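Worked Example 4.2. Consider the chain below.
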Amino acid sequence: MDALIAAAARALATGDALGALNRVALRDDAPALALRGIAMAQLGELARAKVLLRTAARAFGGKAPLARARCVVAEAEVALAARDLSGPRKSLGAAHAALEAHGDRINAAHARCLEARCLLLTGLPDEAERVLEADSARALPAALRASRALVAAGIALRRLHAAQARDALRRAEQAARESGIDALIAEVERAALALSAPAARLIAQGRTRPVTLEQAQALASPRRLIVDACRYAVRVADTNISLTSRPVLFSLVCELAQAWPEDVPREALIARAFRAKAIDESHRARLRVEIGRLRALLRPVADVTATKRGFALMPTLASEVVVLARPVDEKHAAVLALLGDGESWSSSALALALGASQRSVQRALDALAGSGKIQSVGAGRARRWMLPSVIGFATALLLPTPWANE
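Applying the procedure from the previous section yields the following structure tokens:
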């Protein structure tokens, strides 16, 4: 490695992308192309960075498998930054094996970290944790420790474990400050805002107030029945009754919980659950059937009693009923939650992260764009979607979780 390449690599390690470019901008050998690609990525020129790194990997060829693997890992990191979620996982496995075989354990751990980030973005926190723990015993540089702690915090947030997320963010902040990389410190600070931003709305006896993720977790109590409109479930302490596949029943229990301790007129329940404009006897008959089904499901924690004008929710052991609602009343909240990270997403990446069809995601994007909530750049396959500005609430309770879809 010549002196200019070594100096450029040191500059990149400290986040000085312009300093690195000043040393290698006029060179087109493979090491210089790789360093230029990483520098362009740090400056936000992701498309140019991807081209440079791919060219560098081809230039290294089969005679330099270690350098080629490093280029593949760097290109995968650029793809993640551009929210291209389909490509990185395929290339990172082979690159990790090559790095391990040649004794480059630090970059191998970095490849594992990137794979965990990709799994987390696609809604697979359990798999992300398994990948992250594979290298947990290794001594790593401060920057990589900060990145791994950020992924660990993201996993905890997806599981709604606020205390674990706070501990991980504390480790990330310490490691980021030790690294001295300003961009990494700023990334940790942005991630920490999710714990102090409103994550949901608490509705109790007609009053509504915002709550953070930690406050939402603290609601769990044997004396409190929680109708969780973020996870479509009814909870009392450790008892969890999922209604993810029963939208009509959930609409009914949500309406009853918001009115508790008062009852709800039959007409209001029919309008909410069945979306009926003209109510007739068939709707009343259907309401009786659905209320019977709801009673059967809620039997461990509550009863639904008939009153003169409608129905009322009666908790069995709890003395309080609350509703944990989403921070925004938006049909396409999960799409907004993903766009809330401030990055630009393609419709295919959003579909992969949400586990939905690309066509349904495209309809959601068109609806959000029509109401001015999001904007797009580019056209055709290069089209990307983003928020006009980063949203001011936490998104953890808006994103789907694996258990919620069982």
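The longest strand covers residues 310-315. The two ends are 54 Å apart (CA to CA). Compare this with Example 4.1 before moving on.
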